[in-house]
């Protein structure tokens, strides 16, 4: 049996009782650690915190293991119970859907234990989930790579009056350019990077300036989120220009570009407006 278990967003206690029972009866436990991270999992003792509560040794499954050695995980699941832990909900990333498909083709039984994810936790700001359009991912720009394919999706959402969730880039254990160009030697990895709300907005505005189609402007209302689901989560609403000046603190961050709003949404969103927060400080 392969159990794919959502861990939620905050800390080790966010696992469901069903999920914890599945972990404790599994012979092998893996945690996927590149599509997202628990808020505390960035620290060096995050893994041991999980192991202590769950009572199990946990193997970190990085990008290379999941994408290149998934068959090894599935092979173990053909003869024993294996738990594959995922931050958020199991189907928050296509990688996990692929794992289920491969498991079923091998005749491995799969059970999924759902949990909260960024896709529903963003509801905390008051914008109704059914009023969101297509979600977009914002990658880090480089000197030679500045993609803008997300622009059309945001533009379509805005024309329909829908909100847009922007998932911000997470780069964990990424091979360095020098390492990729080398034919020999041990792989070298870049330091972990987590996109901040301010970087996301800077890149969005750069693309708008280049495209000039008025999909959004620096005056467009957005909501910035940091560490959703944790005790110190931060939610701030304001214009893009205003949010550029906000220190959202440690990762993980995400951003919502606000579409048309109805009065109930406006009333809830008002609690998070930057001007109001500054007045309370």
UniProtKB/TrEMBL annotation:
Keyword check for Cell division: no
Keyword S-adenosyl-L-methionine belongs to the record: yes
Pfam family, one: TP_methylase
Keywords per UniProt: Methyltransferase, S-adenosyl-L-methionine, Transferase
Positions with a binding annotation for S-adenosyl-L-methionine: 9, 89, 92, 117-118, 168, 228, 253
Pathway: Protein modification; peptidyl-diphthamide biosynthesis
GO biological process, one term: methylation
UniProt catalytic activity: 2-[(3S)-amino-3-carboxypropyl]-L-histidyl-[translation elongation factor 2] + 4 S-adenosyl-L-methionine = diphthine methyl ester-[translation elongation factor 2] + 4 S-adenosyl-L-homocysteine + 3 H(+)
Tetrapyrrole methylase domain location: 1-243
GO molecular function annotation: diphthine methyl ester synthase activity
EC code: 2.1.1.314
Role, per record: S-adenosyl-L-methionine-dependent methyltransferase that catalyzes four methylations of the modified target histidine residue in translation elongation factor 2 (EF-2), to form an intermediate called diphthine methyl ester. The four successive methylation reactions represent the second step of diphthamide biosynthesis.
Similarity section: Belongs to the diphthine synthase family.
Protein name listed in UniProt: diphthine methyl ester synthase
Organism: Coffea arabica
Gene: LOC113713233
